[in-house]
Amino acid sequence: MNSSTSSLAAYTNHGERVSTRIVFLITGIVMSAWAPLVPLVKARTGLDDGGLGLLLLGFGIGSIVAMPFAGYLTARFGCRPVIICSTIALCSVLPMLSHLTWLPGLTLAVLGFGASMGMLDCAINIQSIIVEKNSGETLQSGFHGLYSVGGIAGAGAMTAMLSLGLDPLLSILCLVAIILAALYKAAPGLLTYGTERDGPLLAIPRGIVLLLGSLCFIVFLTEGAMLDWSAVFLASQRAMEPSYAGLGYASFAAAMTLGRLTGDAIVSRLGGVRVVALGGVCAAAGMLVSLVFDSWQAALLGYALVGIGCSNIVPVLFTAAGRQQRMPQRTAIPAIISMGYAGILMGPAFIGMVAHLSTLVVALGGLVFLLLFVSYAARFLKA
């Protein structure tokens, strides 16, 4: 390869990296923009907690149903059209979620939002795996770090606009304009191809793919527990004022974002296997600290350790998914992400059930053993 060809390849890969970072940022913004709308939906429709829970279940159903098709479509048409179309679909649905009161229409909008998010999530991860492979460098943690940054930015921007009295629809339209501008910037560097086209549309995870999906399930289950139960634990078990109990998840999320933004250098230095092994131990230790020491300060420290420990496990698992040869990537990636989503959807409910039968401390304590299993299973990875 002559110097001009090498320079062109380096320039092309740089553009692909930048575009991949932008679409991860976009995905985080879109996902978090929905969170401030949920209480407004509840108030607008008059749903009780049970009814709202059923409505929100539509998001998970839509996501999991759509994910396998994302693998097929990226293989057939490339990552670029799938990412662009799913992002535009999300930008079309978000305004509906901000003002619809007709319950059947709102249900369809939530299903559409979940399906579009599932498609986008799969497509950007397929893009990230290909870009990382082509570069020969460790990039996954940085990509996922931008998702976390987008989550903070999207939730912060929506909360700020709503707190200033801006109409929900107008707030969403402002955010949609930013998302579409970012998508326009990212489009040239999105891949016009995807993974190999062979293999069935749907496949049962097996071998290393099943292990990777199971580990994703545990890490996402932990994240779901932090999101839904950390504030409850701080308020009920550590006597923290309910108005401040959200600091639990904030500690977790901030630590996870920091861990991911510095994660590429850490993974390059230690290797993926060690990062998963040490991350599982760190997260388990953090959960143990939050449960054993009887102060909210210790709990916040523990949640930060959980965030640091979990931060780079999923990026390493996706790198391993790109290297495995047991299943085609077009079926392996959706399968792994679907198992992760199942952890977020089922985990908090499972913890609630165990807490009802015993105590919340016992229920959250189960995560310690699951995270230690993640650490043990690291030895079977090739990352």
UniProtKB/TrEMBL annotation:
Ranges annotated as spanning the membrane: 21-41, 53-75, 82-102, 108-131, 143-163, 169-187, 208-232, 244-263, 275-293, 299-320, 332-351, 357-378
Signal sequence residues: none
Localisation: Membrane
PANTHER family: BYPASS OF STOP CODON PROTEIN 6, INNER MEMBRANE PROTEIN YBJJ
Membrane topology: Multi-pass membrane protein
Protein name: MFS transporter
InterPro entries hit by this protein: MFS (IPR011701), MFS_trans_sf (IPR036259), MFS_Transporter (IPR051788)
Keywords: Membrane, Transmembrane, Transmembrane helix
